[in-house]
Amino acid sequence: MWEIYTSFPAEALLGFILGGLVVNFAPGQDMFFATACGINGGPRAGAMAGLGAGIGVVWHVTLAALGLSALMVAHPAALEVIRWAGAAYLAWLAVKAWRAGSSGGDGRGIVNPWKAIARGFVSNALNPKPVLFILAFLPQFTNPAYGPVWQQIVALGSIFAFTGTIVTMGYGLLAGYLGRSLLSRMGAVNKVAAVMFGGLAAKLALS
């Protein structure tokens, strides 16, 4: 797998990591759940909820590795369709984030850390949004010259899952220590996320 990582141009890998971090930091279902668990159950419950969500991302990446590579081999033109669909999806995320304000969901979390892991996984695994992002984003950084496409999807997806897990666990930990004061800052975070999503959409459409 290390050979796959080293085959990516440094600028492409950096661009992927930065783009993934935009999504990781943007308020969403996983972040709100981890935050609620942190508020209600303390730092450990919040962190474990983030870990469960991260395991859910691994599930999505596995499915993508199995399906995307086969699709791209059978229908190379499908990548162009995926590119435009991805740009539209990212633009929609930008609009949604801009309008979201400082809403933090219903604030209901799980106190038990082990139950928080299970609920975090189920919540993410059954959420179609990670699937859409992975389908829209990961293929843009693959190239048959770098090695088997499925291995590239696994490599890139592993990075995305790792950073997402760390960030979401961090939200849960902070919520456990800071309580509801963290939610009051979500309005500003949403605005920043909206601008970054819009930039990603434009870059994807013009690339």
Molecular structure report:
With 207 residues, the chain is mostly helical. It has a domain at 28-78 and 104-180. It is 79% helix and 0% strand. It contains 9 helices and no strands. It has helices spanning 2-7, 10-25, 29-41, 43-74, 78-100, 113-125, 128-137, 149-178, 186-206. Helix 4 (43-74) packs parallel to helix 6.
Major β-sheet annotation: none
Using only C-alpha atoms, the radius of gyration works out to 17 Å
Low-confidence regions: none
Tally of separate helices: 9
| Intertermini distance | 27 Å
- Please identify the structural class as seen in this structure: mainly alpha
Concise summary:
With 207 residues, the protein is an all-alpha fold. It has helices at residues 2-7, 10-25, 29-41, 43-74, 78-100, 113-125, 128-137, 149-178, 186-206.
Secondary-structure map with pairings?
Elements: H1 2-7, H2 10-25, H3 29-41, H4 43-74, H5 78-100, H6 113-125, H7 128-137, H8 149-178, H9 186-206
Helix pairs in contact: 2-8, 2-9, 3-4, 3-6, 3-8, 4-6, 4-7, 4-8, 5-7, 5-9
